[in-house]
Amino acid sequence: MLISICIPCYKSSKTLPKVYESVVEEFKKHPEHDYQFVLVNDGSPDATFAAIKEIAAKDEKVTGVDLSRNYGQVNAKMAALQYAKGDVICFMDDDGQHPAEGIFQLLAKMQEGGYDVVYAHFAKKKASFFKKLTSDLHNHIAEKMENKPKGVHRSSFTVWSRAVVDALKDYHSPFTSIGSYLMKVTTKYADVEVEHKERIAGRSGYTFKKLFKMWANIFFSFSMKPLRMATVFGVIFSLGGFGWGLFLIIRKLIHPEILAGYTSTLVILLLIGGLIMIFLGIIGEYIGRIYMTVSGMPQYNVREVVGDDKK
User: Fold this and answer.
1) Dihedral class, residue 72 (left if φ above 0, else alpha if ψ from -120 to 50, else beta)
2) Which residues, other chains included, contact 114 with Cβ-Cβ below 8 Å and sequence gap of 6+?
3) How far apart are CA 67 and CA 45, in angstroms?
4) What is the distance between the alpha carbons of residues 105 and 149, in angstroms, rounded to a whole number?
C-alpha cells in the first residue's frame, strides 16, 4: 500500500529533515507499505523550501511544493492533496511532535474498522497552556457548529482514505474548513491514542489571529447556525417587544398618572440596536465570502514544484 505523507511546512528548515528521516526509518520496519512525501512550503520566510529541495534531490519519492505566500496550514493541506498519489493520505506536523510510529497506529485503526478518517488523540499534550486551551476550545466549537461526534478528538495528525481525498480535491473555496467539509463527505470517523512528543526546535506558528480565522471558517463556511440564531433572537425580541408594549398600554390605562420610563426605553433601544448591528455583520460576512468565492479568489497559488513527474 502506498501512503502519502503530507506535511504543511512553515519555518521548519531545522526540524523538517529530522521528521523526514524518522518517517523513512519507520517505513523500513513495514516493508509491505511504500511511502510518498508531499512537503508544502507555506510561504516560509526562512530556508524551508531550500530544505525541501535538498530532501527531494536525494529521494525521488519526495514532492516539494512552494506556495507564493502564507495561506495558512489548512490551505497548504489542500494544495498537498493535488499531489498525493497514495491509497491512504497521512497529514502530520513538521515540528517532530507527531511520532513516525503513530502513522501505523492510525493505519491499523483505519483498517480495523473500515474508517475513512482516523485522528490521533493526544491524551497528554506536550504543549503550552494556551495551545492546550485553544485545542480544547476548537474541538468544542466543532461539536456545536459541525455536529462532530463527541467521542472523536480531532488533531492535525490524521489519516484519510482515498475516497475522502478524491471528494476533497473538488473543494475550491478560499475560506477553507476541512473538518466541516469532511462532515459532509463521511460519517466513518475514529480516533486512537498516540504519544505526543516534545517539539524538536522552535515554537508553534499558531497565533490567536490564525485560530480566530480558522474558527470563523467553521462558523460561516458550512453552517447556517449563525443565521438561524439571528432568526431566533429576532423572534424572541419581537415577542418580547409585543408583550412589553401590551403591558405598558394596560398599565397606562389602569394607572394614567405613571410617567413614561425614558431610561428603560433608551436601554432597550440600545440593546436592540446593538443586536441588529451584530446580525447585520453576520449577514455581511456571508455576503462577503460569497462575493470573494464567486470572484475567483484562489485557495492557494503554487510558485514552484520539485520532484513530481506529472506537474
Assistant:
1) left
2) 188
3) 12
4) 21
In contact, 118 and 157? CB cutoff 8 Å: no
CB-based contacts of 6, cutoff 8 Å, min separation 6: 37, 38, 40, 77, 80, 81, 84, 89, 90, 91, 92
**So where are the chain's domains?**
2-205+301-306, 225-294
* Beta carbons within 8 Å of 101's beta carbon, 6+ residues apart: 26
Return the CATH superfamily for domain 2-205+301-306. Answer: Spore Coat Polysaccharide Biosynthesis Protein SpsA; Chain A (3.90.550.10)
> CA-to-CA distance for 195 and 99, rounded, in angstroms?
7
DSSP strands (E only) in 152-272? 158-161, 189-193
Q: If you search the block for the grid coordinates 522552535, which residue do you land on?
A: 202
The β-bridge relationship of strands 158-161 and 302-306 is unpaired
What's the rounded Cα separation, in Å, for the pair 193 and 237? 46
Burial (CB < 10 A; 0-12, 13-18, 19+), residue 264, is exposed
What's the grid cell of residue 220? 460561516
* 48-92 pLDDT tens trace: 999 999 999 999 999 999 999 998 888 999 999 999 999 999 999
Q: Give the mean pLDDT of the chain.
A: 82
Q: pLDDT tens digit string along 207-251?
A: 666 666 666 666 666 666 777 777 787 778 777 777 877 877 787
